[in-house]
Design brief:
Blueprint: H1 6-9, H2 11-23, H3 36-39, E1 48-52, E2 56-62, E3 67-73, E4 84-89, E5 92-99, E6 104-107, H4 110-116, E7 121-130, E8 133-142, H5 158-187
Antiparallel strand pairs: 1-2, 2-3, 3-6, 4-5, 4-7, 5-6, 7-8
Length: about 200
Amino acid sequence: MKTVNIFQRYGRLLALTGLLGLASLTWAHGGEDHGDTAMAVSATGLPRVEAHSDLFELVGQLDGQGLSLLIDRYDSNAPVLGAKVTVESGGIEAAATFHADHGDYAVTDERLLTLLRQGQEHALVFTITAGDDSDLLDGTLRRPQAAAPAEHATGLPWGQLLLGLVVLAALLAAAYVYLQRRARARLLPGLGEPV
């Protein structure tokens, strides 16, 4: 009786089984892309402030050039253009300059900007005078918190690894049963498929 090495005869089947098991490790799950972007931590945004009263609403953002403000009427969302606007924080008061080309107001006073660029939060008081309407708005300039890294970004994907091992074990078990039946059929020709 000639003995046949299982790996020689069924090498392709075993190789395919192994590749299928390993391929299951690379599947993305939950709509995630496991490229370079999955490892990146979200960059922090710019400090922002929002405030409103019965008359006005304001949104501001601190960037490298200054504090930029957009002001609207609270009841109609109509932009407030050409108003007199001052900002106060930490005992420093500065006037905002209106930019007609963009419809925004800019605070460029270096003393105030130096203060606002330090720390995480700053209480601000805005004085807005537009025509016959005048109001004070309180707001807090806040730096957005950095997003936490994704859970899988620093560790191994244990769930995927376990799934891959289960699939690999199931395929190997199926291949073993198949090979055992073929070997038994060869030894006992009357009970199985012909030799």
